[in-house]
Amino acid sequence: MSGNYALIVAGGRGVRFGGAVPKQYLPLGGATVLRRAAASFAEHPRLAGVAVVIRGEDRALFDRATEGIRLLPPVEGGAERQDSVRLGLESLLRHEPARVLIHDAARPFADAALIDRVLDALEQAPAAIPALPLGDTIKRVADNGRIIETVDRARLYRAQTPQGFDFATILAAHRAAAGRALTDDAAVVEAAGIAPIVVTGAEDNLKVTTANDLAAAERLLAARLADIRVGQGFDVHGFGPGEDVMICGIAVPHDRALVGHSDADVGLHALTDAVLGAIGAGDIGRHFPPSDPRWQGAASDIFLRHAAALVRERSGIIAAVDVTIICERPKIGPHRAAMVERIAAILGMAAERVSVKATTTDRLGFTGRGEGIAAQAVATVRLPLR
Predict the structure, then answer these.
(1) Which of 13, 8, 58, 14 is nearest to 208 (CA)?
(2) Domain 227-383 in CATH: superfamily?
(3) I need a labelling partner for 104 at 20 to 30 A (CA). Which of 5, 24, 138, 259 fits?
(4) What is the pLDDT of residues 158-173, one digit of tens each?
(5) pTM for the full predicted model
(6) Cα separations in angstroms, 226 against 37, 229, 316, 331, 379
(7) Topology annotation, domain 4-224
């Protein structure tokens, strides 16, 4: 056995939520619900690996939502949640896990302390779940809308995820429960005669089931990230021999190329400086010195991913970015949508939070004379208040 693993279940269709896109792939404060859920586990030091169970047709959505996160290859799920969990567990067999945490992708705010509580409990029991006592008075109601009775809430709890298990125990229980309709993974081991222990859950660990839940999650995230920072960046590169220019991660056909130590992506360089500036982390040259041969010809998305990772290390988000390309040629308009999508993918944020514009200098200055291209960028970052 080789340690602790996590399995995130993201194969649902969100019928109660509605809409064309499953709720786990919807934006939440600059990143998708799934990305927020997966990142908490992928970054946890006590977990050796994290796998996500998805629907096969959602693979493109999954790839965009989780780009840059350290995850195992996704697993295609089954018709029902229980089928998906079992298939996910089977996929982990080759890693010989000792314990596994099973988490719903629709819960984006499971923090490190909650994960630790569940893992610690597994030292004393083969199954453990986070839960919270009910605070409201509970009524049993008939079909006609009339109250039948008031239910004693003293021993009633709201179950949450991640739910933790001895790996061999939960796999055997799921195999035995195939074809049954059980409400969660704790119920699966309960059916096998095992009583999970309860650890304290978290009020913030809400589940996004309806549009109102997503709005509540947005409010919660905004309250957490009340320190709003703005950074700006500027970059310029001259033309040299070549057949295309790299701008905002897209190779744009042209009769010349931009010259620089890396791939000379003027848009991503300016944006990297804007993100770094927003968190007071210096400039791109401080992190990737042009004197270092490792960055000769390097793709500039490396630089932007690094800046975004620094924001995440501070438990922050990049809320919005705006890039302006300044040149006479090539024309940016035909490539703007692709640039927006590329930046959104690099940063792991919704495309609606990315803006790419272009302008000229009316043939004035070095850009007006066609000697090169300039770019300026602004990034808005939200950090937790210290």
Answers:
(1) 14
(2) 2-C-methyl-D-erythritol 2,4-cyclodiphosphate synthase (3.30.1330.50)
(3) 138
(4) 999 999 999 999 999 9
(5) 0.73
(6) 21, 10, 10, 39, 16
(7) Spore Coat Polysaccharide Biosynthesis Protein SpsA; Chain A (3.90.550)
